[in-house]
Amino acid sequence: MLLGLALGGIAGCEGTIHDPERPGGPGTPGGPGPTVVEKPARSVRMARLTHAQWSSTVKELLRLDAPPTALAEGFRADPAQSGFLFDNDARALSVDEALWGAYQRAAAELAGQVTTSAAKLARILPASTASAEERARAFVESFGLRAHRRPLTSEEVEGYLALYRKGPQAYADMPAFEGGIRLVLEAFLQSPHFLYRVERSTEARQERVPLDDYEVASRLSYGLWGAMPDDALFTAASEGTLHSREGVATQARRMLQDARAKHVVEAFHRTLFDVPRYATIRPSPTRFPEVTQRFPEYAARENTLFVQDVVFARQGRYSDLLTSPSTFVNDELARVYGLSGTFTADFVPVTLNSRERKGVLTQVGFLASHATSADPDPIHRGVFLSERILCRKIGAPPANIPPLPAPAGRTNREVVASHTEAPGTACASCHSNLINPLGFPFENFDAIGRYRTTDNGHPVNASASPLIGDDNVQVRDALDLADALAEDASVHACYARHWVEYLHGRPFAEEDGPLVERLGKLSKEGGLSIVDLVVEVVTSEGFVNRHPEELP
Predict the structure, then answer these.
(1) Is the pTM above the cut of 0.70?
(2) Which residues contact 428 (CB under 8 A, 6 or more apart)?
(3) Helices (H), 191-317
(4) What is the pLDDT of residues 428-447, one digit of tens each?
(5) DSSP 386-455
């Protein structure tokens, strides 16, 4: 069963068994058959903040007007983890000597900025108390809660106060109180409890380690916002309301209404749909003189507006991303789409011709970024769908593959098919069965994503029989393909899998299978909006519990 192969051996029934004292996905009544157990997978207990998370956290911790982007840009680049789609894999986020030095310099710079500005310092200090020592203690406790993202222990409080008392010696040119706070700030910003999301819970119950409320709060905030918890989330943790599924769901839905969640949702889909690739769009100016150098930028803007509209304005489902003809265009994109009417440089909502367009895969960004400067590229269009939409990995091609030959009067499809599907060649199996049938339905779209019915003087043939889930599905064109994808549970499960990986910051694991299949079925049946799907992930067993054996 390909769904099982793609998603790591998913069981066939729905439902869940979970610790009744902790939140966890409720499952769906599954009819006859055994109940599927949803449980946490192995993960690291100390996940370093990504550079983007560090920057956002510093802004909110120090209550700055803007994130310290310039400082973060000085950090050595975070490495990508091979085989992992997103940039937040905790396995790859270590601290080496170069990064540690950068953290130290950033801490000193930020502490100096804050403590030499009365206005900035006032934002993070508690109200004045009877003595400087008492005010310093109140600061350590209140600021420490936010910096460590949990209440400090008494030993930690005393340790930071000892540093505060050394401030006058370290900064003799500053008033004693400000010098002490400066030294304390430097220490907080270099603490592993600030630089890492540390999960200290260790007590195992029913083959899982329930996270405490502050640990759940951090998973929520960094998953949904890419930043530290806010005051409301800290209050929920202190009151113990994150100990229930309902409490976590309430906070998650509140957080998903925040602008920070919109940035996270945008970042997720930018990666999933490979929007950075749009910057490589370089249509031939001879073939496509109507396209300007800003075309890649406009295509990326369209994708962002479309995703935000579907997810938040319409509270839409994954099917809507795949099939909706509604989008946003400016004057240049309107010309490519063949729209009549008056358009300007401003983006406005439109509904495209539903006989030509359906969803993100028929928008110009995807089509033009998977094309040469002159022709469509069904090979890379097919590989994209296989890996990103179906979660079906395509192996690396053999070395020294010759380029496509000249058309010589043939259609683009005929050239590709003859070059890649010749019987007995190393390429034939993958291309004939997995790649080309997913790419050929887009032959109605040229190298800039403009709709066409002829190619090189011949009628376009966009029919194919791609393997979707367990079955080969006959489609006439990209519209049929979009519908077939939207109606397949394995496609929805693949989308859920991406969200599980992104929100956990780790690759898919076997334990994720039951959750992913459950969400795939609910999404396919129309019961889950994208917002609902995200809430289901962050209230699931795997999100609010840890595996009893953490990774080394």
Answers:
(1) yes
(2) 420, 421, 422
(3) 192-195, 213-224, 231-238, 245-255, 259-272, 295-308
(4) 889 989 999 999 999 999 99
(5) IIIIS--PPPPPPSSPPPPPP-TT--HHHHHHHHH--TTSTTHHHIIIIIHHHHGGGTTB-TTS-B-SEE
